[in-house]
Amino acid sequence: MAEPTEAGPVRLRRSPLAHLEERMRAATVTGARGVTLTEWPFITMVNLRVDPASEAADRIEKTLGAPLPRQCGHTTASGPHTVVWLGPDEWLVLSQAEGTAVATELKEALGGDPGSVVDVSANRTTLELSGPAARQVLEKGCPLDLHPRAFGPGQAVSTTVGPVAVLLWQVDGAPTYRLLPRSSFADYLARWLIDAMSEYRGPEVP
């Protein structure tokens, strides 16, 4: 993705994988075994902790326009927001809206009740792996069962890809996956994925 063009401090931001943009584009494979890798930088991410049975949780759900998912692997979405389950009382809110605005609205909804709202947008970046061979690429280094019978669209879990810890979210049945590594590990993960994708440039071995 292109770097932001907004004036002021935002214009100075540089994504963790800006230096690999051309390599990721060049790694694209088309056809029946196609797969693409792109970075989605600067997505708003807000860590939320609250008692799911509390009135504060009800207020937060109204603010988000979506219920807080209650089970491991589940996500919910409404408008610009997607909410990912991290634990019994913890979620990650992913949003297309501006981070400060999202965090402020959630803090107001939490009020003085126990809990926390922290903008962690700079903590991770987002890699998108998509195409017919995307699942096979991930299976080279992910211990999860990624077969559609076990993991499908709308599910997200913490796991590893190669040696890198990620939040893995399947967006659709294409399949399209979004991987959220810590920013400091993003370079290694992107290079690992580029290498894993290279096999699919050649013909399938019977």
From TrEMBL:
Tell me which InterPro entries the record gives: SoxG, TrmE/GcvT-like
What Gene3D superfamilies does this protein map onto? Heterotetrameric sarcosine oxidase, Probable tRNA modification gtpase trme, domain 1
Q: What's the protein called, per UniProt?
A: Sarcosine oxidase subunit gamma
Q: Which organism is it from?
A: Streptomyces diastatochromogenes
Q: Name the source's superkingdom.
A: Bacteria
